[in-house]
Amino acid sequence: MQYHIETNRIILRELRSLDLDGLFELDSDLDVHKYLGNKPVKTREESIRILESVFNQYKERGIGRFAVIEKSSGDFVGWSGIRFNTEYNMNC
Predict the structure, then answer these.
(1) Each residue of 23-59: pLDDT tens digit?
(2) Which residues have CB under 8 Å from 83's CB, separation 6+?
(3) φ, ψ for residue 31 (rounded to 5)?
(4) Which residues in 15-32 are b (16+ Cβ under 10 Å) and which e?
(5) pLDDT at position 77, please?
(6) Where are the domains of the chain?
(7) What's this model's pTM, rounded to 2 decimal places?
(8) Which of 25, 40, 50, 57 could join 33 via S-S bond, C-beta 3.0 to 4.6 A?
């Protein structure tokens, strides 16, 4: 996946291996997961598996999570994305 979206303050781009530290920091935070409805990760290895899963989504579906990068600092500040969902039948 090679998407790159910019606003005045942020950059959305594909997640990369170098985002591991930021991803772990965010996904291990209990307060963050209070609003996501799932449990925080406990180890960096769990975050590595998440990244590997995202990389597979890019290959298999061409979509997935975006890293959210603060433009002024270059810091990883979060993630967002598009989810390919096969659970719903959208026949009209």
Answers:
(1) 999 999 999 888 878 899 999 999 999 999 999 988 9
(2) 63
(3) -65, -35
(4) beeebbebbbebbbeeee
(5) 96
(6) 4-81
(7) 0.81
(8) 40
* Domain 4-81: CATH superfamily, name plus number: Gcn5-related N-acetyltransferase (GNAT) (3.40.630.30)
Tokens of 38: 């799932």
Distance from C-alpha of 24 to C-alpha of 30, rounded to nearest angstrom: 12
pLDDT, tens only, 51-88: 999 999 889 888 888 999 999 999 999 999 877 666 66
